[in-house]
Amino acid sequence: MVRPVRNCGWALFLDVDGTLLEIATGPDAVCVPARTRYLLQTAQSRESGAVALVSGRTIADLDRLFDPMRLPVAGVHGLERRDAAGRQTTLEVEPALLDDARERIAPLLAAHTGLRLEDKRCSLALHFRQVPHLEPQARAVFDDVMQRASPHFHLQTGKYCLEIKPAVCSKRSAIEAFMGEPPFAGRLPVFVGDDDTDEEGFEAVNELGGLSIRVGHTPVSAARWQFTTVKAVLRWLHRPEQPEVCPMPRDGFLP
């Protein structure tokens, strides 16, 4: 099997749900096994601290999940960011701009108990994993909401999830910011993610000459490499010299 060659230090950027953790029935239903924390700590030591989480979750939620670890992290798709020195920044967005969206989504939630709204204050994520047949209705409501929320907010699709997120943030900008700071600067960026919310991150890493790796099978992606499962990602964190990756099918590349 062809594998990417490691010839310098890596700057590791890791999505969480679907990458480090198996997808659960909802965002509150996950827990982080002790072994996963150990593997992250090992990777952080091996890469001289150049390991960051890049997630749609808030930083507060990530700290709760990975406690007592306090990794560099980008939360809410880059809206929040904490660097390796512990300095935290949040892009300015007016939460009240989403009040209309909350009102429009409320009747849909009231009518269907299987839907769950994750309110991140400056971002709204609707999860429909338990009721996938409701996706067309959910999309219709969110399309209507976006007519008023745009251009301040963008619609982000994920696995059984629709999210309205601020237009000013992206995983691309978060990764680029980390790469301009120690201990990430001067290293080869490697980003591992599992769904459409990670595509901008893959594009950024590709432009920086790094390694973009998507977890699972997908017909189209900017990622150039592929892990088949979360377990393969964890084994790679343990033994990075033997990655269980394969090249993305050539026709699977995004232009």
Description:
This protein has 255 residues and is α/β, with parallel strands linked by helices. The chain has two domains: 10-91 and 169-252, HAD superfamily/HAD-like (Rossmann fold), CATH 3.40.50; 95-166, 2-Layer Sandwich (Alpha-Beta Plaits). The protein is 30% helix and 22% strand. The protein is built from seven helices and 13 strands. The chain has helices at 34-46, 59-66, 99-111, 135-149, 171-179, 199-207, 230-238; strands at residues 10-14, 51-54, 73-75, 80-82, 88-90, 116-119, 124-127, 153-158, 161-166, 188-193, 211-215, 225-227, 245-247. The strands form two sheets. Strands 5-4-3-2-1-10-11-12-13 form a nine-stranded mixed sheet, sandwiched between helices. It has a four-stranded antiparallel sheet with strand order 6-7-9-8, covered by helices on one side. Strand 6 and strand 7 (124-127) form a beta hairpin. The longest helix has 15 residues, at 135-149. The radius of gyration is 18 Å and the shape is globular. It starts with 9 loop residues before the first strand and ends in an 8-residue tail after the last strand. The relative contact order is 0.16.
